[in-house]
Amino acid sequence: MTRFLLARLVQSVAVLVVMSFVIYGLIGLMPGDPIDLMINADPKMTSEDATRLRALYGLDKPIIERYGNWLKAALTADLGYSRLHAKPVLEVLGPALGNTIVLLGLSFLLSLAIGLPAGIAAALRPYSRSDYAINFLAFAGISVPAFWLALLLIIVFAVFLGILPASGTGTIGAAGFWESAKYVVLPVANLTIASAGGHTRYMRAAMIETLRQDYIRTARAKGASQTRVVFRHALRNAMIPVVTVVALNFGYLFSGALITETIFAYPGMGKLIFDAIMGNDFNLALVALLFATVLTLAGNLLADLTYAWLDPRISYQ
C-alpha cells in the first residue's frame, strides 16, 4: 500500500506540473494583460510607461521563461497577488473555499442520501410503478436547466412566499443558526435536485446488473434474507461503478457550480474562477484552477482506496 501511495503521489505531482504549464500557457495566450487594463484606465499613460511596466513585471519575456519564474516562486509558497482583490492569492481563496465547502459539501451529501436509496428502491422492483415514478423524478432533475430551476426557486420562495433570501451569504456567528443557514437553503436545493437524479440512475443500473449475477441467486437459494442479499452481497459490488462516477464529479463540485453561484450571488470557487478569468487576474485564476485539479486527483485516489474496501479481491500491495 505504501508503494502504491508513493507512486500515486509522484503521478499527481507530474500531473500538477503539466496542468500548471497548460493553464499558464492558455491564460498567457488570452488577449490583453494587466498592463493593457492599466492603459485603458489611465489615458495619460504613455507607451514608454507601458513598456517599462511590462519589463518590471516580466511580461516582456517569453512565456516559457515567465512560467519558470512563476514555478520557482510557487515552490517557495509565493503564489503572487490577486489584481482584482489587491490581496495575496491564498487570502482570496480562503473565504471562497470555505463558502464552497458549505454549499457543495451539503448538496453532495444530500444528493447521495437521496439518490442512492432511491436507486436501490427502483432496482429492487424494476419496471414497477415505483420504478417508473423514481425514474421520472430522476429524469426531471437531470433535464431541468440549473439556471431555470434557480430562478424558479427564487420566484417561489423569495418573491412570492418571502421566507428565504434570494441571494448573498449569512455572517456566521452574527445571528442565530437559522439566520445564517437560510442563505444556503436555495442554492443547496438547486444543486441537490440537479445531481440527485444522476446518482439515482447510476445506482439503479448498477444494482439491477448486480442482482442478476449468479452469486446473488446462490445466496437466495441458500435462504439468505432479502435484506442480507441486498446490503451484504449486492450493494458493495454495485457501489464500485457508482464510486467511479462520484469521484469524477468530486473536483467538478468545487469549481463547476458557476451558474448556481452566479444566480444566487454566492461567493464560491466557481464564481471566483470565472471573475478571475474575465478580469485577467492571472495569478488567482491559475491557482484556483490548479486547486480544482488537486481535488480531482484526491477524489480519484479516494475512489481507488474505496475499491479495495468494497471488494477485498482488489489489492494494492
Explain this structure.
The protein has 317 residues and is mostly helical. The protein has a domain at 90-310: Orthogonal Bundle (MetI-like fold), CATH 1.10.3720.10. It contains 14 helices and two strands, in the order ααααββαααααααααα. A two-stranded antiparallel sheet has the order 1-2.
In DSSP terms, counting alpha (H) and pi (I) runs of 4 or more, how many helices?
A: 14
Radius of gyration: 24 Å
DSSP strand tally? 2
- Average of the residue pLDDT scores: 83
- Provide the CATH topology of one domain: MetI-like fold
Strand order within the widest sheet?
Answer: 1-2
* Global geometry: flat
Percent range for β-strand residues: under 5%
> Which stretches are low in confidence, meaning pLDDT under 50 for 5 or more residues running?
none
CATH architecture of one domain: Orthogonal Bundle
**Helical coverage, percent range:** over 70%
Structural classification: mainly alpha
CATH classification, class level of one domain: Mainly Alpha
CATH 4th-level superfamily of one domain: MetI-like
C-alpha end-to-end distance: 5 Å
Q: What series of H and E elements makes up the topology?
A: HHHHEEHHHHHHHHHH
Main β-sheet description? 2 strands, antiparallel
